[in-house]
């Protein structure tokens, strides 16, 4: 397990999240009703990744303006802040303020020690290194001449830059994972797996043990799957697309011949079994389209990956929840106008767990995370 782990996250004023501070474990499974705010939590990390890549202004425009990102808009929320506490005793904090033209700018950007600093050093750490900035200076400052601040900012930037938010939902014919892509796009798996063929091609040739492990795992879920046929395009050798073979046929198939669930599982297996895992993996409803047996295998892959990284995922699957322990579960509820988050603990559920599974407790609303009680019959009058 990496020693560069996220210990705690605080989010204030972001979408439905008015104020949240929660610890982050190796495995973190968000459960809750539709619209409760699970996706908002995950999207906050996507937003953060865009920020450190100096894409704040683009992200705000793509979201539809600052008002759509602020908790009930700028009339109610004057600042949006994100604070990340790491196991190496550093905190990265940003405070964003809306402008009159519905953009966001930096009120502050900080790298703060958790502990162990004298008063003089603390003053230097508490210095706001980006007042009024339109984009993050974390990466820029990591190259700065200040020998005191630079190593800490560089450490934080290098940690955050390894985080990935993955969405494998798009399996339409226009999805990137089904198209030809650049053979050289193989350094890491893209967040929509659009470079899956190039990435697998690289693993097949440089990390054969890992590649074979991926193939064996795919066969557990897709028994007729034989192997990938990974070869550059004859007409354009700089490109490649995903092709595969069936145990029962000599014919070569494209990704379009796979079911949506099968293609998503291939993406997940590749992500979770690769040799160098992202520092933090975030997944929004990874169970989509998967058979219950595949969900059990997915859970095993997540738990195995979490021995070397951290995983945050949201789910609507009772079967997937049943594969984890209470302390892995974060219950997300909509309470009035805001989203609340609560991590379960083994002790408080000990008596319940003797007779019921976690999924049963969720379905019966013992642990929360279910929609409000509905009328037994809809009325159209």
Please give a structural write-up.
The chain has 381 residues and is of the alpha/beta class. It has a domain at 1-166 and 326-346: Rossmann fold, CATH 3.40.50. The chain is built from 13 helices and 16 strands. It has helices at 38-52, 56-63, 66-69, 119-125, 138-142, 150-160, 196-206, 208-221, 260-273, 292-305, 318-321, 346-353, 358-363; strands at 6-14, 17-23, 27-32, 80-86, 90-98, 104-113, 163-166, 181-182, 225-228, 239-240, 243-246, 252-254, 280-284, 310-315, 329-335, 338-343. The strands form 4 sheets. The protein has a 6-stranded mixed β-sheet, sandwiched between helices. A hairpin with a 2-residue loop joins strand 1 and strand 2. The protein is globular and about 65 Å long. It starts with 5 loop residues before the first strand and ends in an 18-residue tail after the last helix. 37% of the residues are buried.
Q: What is this structure's SSE topology?
A:
Layout: E1 6-14, E2 17-23, E3 27-32, H1 38-52, H2 56-63, H3 66-69, E4 80-86, E5 90-98, E6 104-113, H4 119-125, H5 138-142, H6 150-160, E7 163-166, E8 181-182, H7 196-206, H8 208-221, E9 225-228, E10 239-240, E11 243-246, E12 252-254, H9 260-273, E13 280-284, H10 292-305, E14 310-315, H11 318-321, E15 329-335, E16 338-343, H12 346-353, H13 358-363
Helix pairs in contact: 7-8, 8-9, 9-10
């Amino acid at each position: 397990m990496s020693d560069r782990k996220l210990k705690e996250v605080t989010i204030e004023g972001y979408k439905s999240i008015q104020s949240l501070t929660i610890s982050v474990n190796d495995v973190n499974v968000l459960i809750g009703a539709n619209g409760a705010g699970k996706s908002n939590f995950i999207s906050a990390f996507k937003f953060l990744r865009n920020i450190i890549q100096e894409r704040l202004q683009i992200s705000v425009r793509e979201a539809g303006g600052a008002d759509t990102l602020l908790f009930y808009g700028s009339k109610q929320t004057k600042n949006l802040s994100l604070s990340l506490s790491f196991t190496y005793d550093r905190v990265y904090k940003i405070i964003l303020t809306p402008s009159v033209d519905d953009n966001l700018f930096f009120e502050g950007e900080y790298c703060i020690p958790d502990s162990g600093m004298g008063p003089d050093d603390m003053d230097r750490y508490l210095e706001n290194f980006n007042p009024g900035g339109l984009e993050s200076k974390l990466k820029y400052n990591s190259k700065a001449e200040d020998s005191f601040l630079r190593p800490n900012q560089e450490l934080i930037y290098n940690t955050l830059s390894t985080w990935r938010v993955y969405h494998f939902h798009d399996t339409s014919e226009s999805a990137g994972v089904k198209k030809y892509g650049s053979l050289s796009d193989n350094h890491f798996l893209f967040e929509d797996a659009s470079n899956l063929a190039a990435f697998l091609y690289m693993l097949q040739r440089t990390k054969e043990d890992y590649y074979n492990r991926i193939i064996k795992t795919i066969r557990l879920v897709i028994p007729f799957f034989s192997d990938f046929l990974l070869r550059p395009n004859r007409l354009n050798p700089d490109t490649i697309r995903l092709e595969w073979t069936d145990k029962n046929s000599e014919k070569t198939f494209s990704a379009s011949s796979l079911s949506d669930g099968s293609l998503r599982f291939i993406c997940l297996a590749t992500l979770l079994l690769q040799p160098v895992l992202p520092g933090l993996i975030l997944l929004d409803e990874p169970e989509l389209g998967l058979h219950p047996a595949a969900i059990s295998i997915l859970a095993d892959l997540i738990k195995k990956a979490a021995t070397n990284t951290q995983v945050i995922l949201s789910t609507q699957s009772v079967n997937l929840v049943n594969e984890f322990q209470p302390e892995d579960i974060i219950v997300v509820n909509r309470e009035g106008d805001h989203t609340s988050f609560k991590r379960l603990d083994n002790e408080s559920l000990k008596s319940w767990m003797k007779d019921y599974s976690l999924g049963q407790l969720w379905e019966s609303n013992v642990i929360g995370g279910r929609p409000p009680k509905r009328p037994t019959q809809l009325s159209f009058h």
